[in-house]
Automatic annotation (TrEMBL):
InterPro entries on file: NAD(P)-bd_dom_sf (IPR036291), ODC_Mu_crystall (IPR003462), ODC_N (IPR023401)
Pfam families: OCD_Mu_crystall (PF02423)
Organism: Hydrogenophaga borbori
NCBIfam families referenced in this protein's UniProt entry, alphabetically: PRK07340.1
Protein name (Swiss-Prot/TrEMBL): Delta(1)-pyrroline-2-carboxylate reductase family protein
Coiled-coil spans in chain: none
Length: 307
């Protein structure tokens, strides 16, 4: 029996191209064999959080084991660390070990890409990215490769981080520049991704009527990126969407706006509905099913190759 395949960060990224990963996520949402129990969340003694996130379908079983330590930048370490362990669900063989932060970044951006494909009134941009960290970079790459976006505007509390992401966008052949006022930039950008630390509302202006917003940074009920008035405005004039029903108790932006989140359609619901009219606010909180979709994409080339 062959040992499990080990994928470092670069190899994990190469195995998960954004358009193919978005397709894999859509396929997973239509698969009745997928089972995703509630994740286990444990506080760490120094203030971080440890997550254990299992999922399975008829062919593949996974567990993502990651830690999240918000202030790790002060230590010269990434905020998210860990791995995704991939098994053959039929015979229990370990197939692969994937880099956890890379899977998290790419599957989160691919979920937003699928949501934009499904819900966005227009997908040509310009794209405004608020927050120039790991998720800002992943979403830039995903929307460029999956939607063909060519114009990007980047806003960040750190000018250096914004300029670094602008430079990366230009290396990809995009027309990119830094903006200092994200609220003002909303008037020019029908595509918006917010990927901030989400400790307080960063965006207060109303979006365009043809806007698609992917709100990524807030993944607990106490976090938010968007002012409550903005969320209520979009709910009244357009449409809301959440990634899964787990958002019912995690979608801080919507919960703090006083909205009835359990009645908000999920991405799976919207895949079976016509594209809505007006602005769209998509809340992307995270789910182990997205990690399973990534593992399925990798495992497709491994199952049957190990004896």
């Amino acid at each position: 029996m062959s040992p499990p395949r080990l994928y470092a960060a670069e190899a994990t990224a190469a195995a998960l191209p954004y358009p193919a990963l978005a397709d894999a996520i859509a396929a997973l949402l239509r698969d009745p064999t997928v089972k995703v129990p509630a994740r286990t969340v444990l506080p760490l003694p120094a203030g971080g959080t440890f997550f254990a996130m299992p999922a399975t379908d008829a062919r593949v079983a996974i567990t993502k084991l990651i830690s999240f330590v918000a202030d790790n930048a002060t230590r010269g370490l990434p905020a998210i660390q860990g791995d995704v362990v991939v098994f053959d669900a039929r015979d229990g063989r370990r197939l692969a070990l994937l880099d956890g932060p890379t899977v998290t970044a790419r599957r989160t951006a691919a979920v937003s890409l699928l949501a934009a494909r499904t819900l966005a009134p227009r997908t040509d941009g310009p794209l405004l990215i608020v927050g120039a960290g790991v998720q800002g970079r992943a979403h830039l790459e995903a929307f460029a490769s999956g939607l063909g976006v060519r114009q990007v505007r980047v806003a960040s509390r750190s000018a250096a981080s914004a300029e670094a992401l602008v430079a990366h966008a230009r290396r990809l052949g995009l027309d990119a520049r830094r903006v200092d006022d994200a609220d003002a930039a909303l008037a020019d950008c029908p595509l918006v991704v917010s990927a901030t630390p989400a400790q307080a509302a960063s965006l207060h202006a109303l979006p365009r009527d043809d806007a698609f917003i992917a709100a990524v940074g807030a993944f607990t009920p106490t976090m938010l990126e968007w002012a409550p008035d903005v969320c209520r405005h979009v709910a009244a004039r357009g449409a809301l969407a959440v990634d899964t029903r787990d958002a019912d108790h995690e979608a801080g932006d919507l919960l703090q706006a006083g909205l009835d989140v359990p009645t908000v359609p999920t991405l799976a619901d919207w895949l079976a509905r016509p594209r809505p009219a007006g602005p769209v606010f998509f809340k992307n909180c995270g789910w182990a099913g997205w990690d399973l979709a990534a593992a399925r994409l990798v495992a497709a080339g491994l199952i049957g190759t190990q004896a």
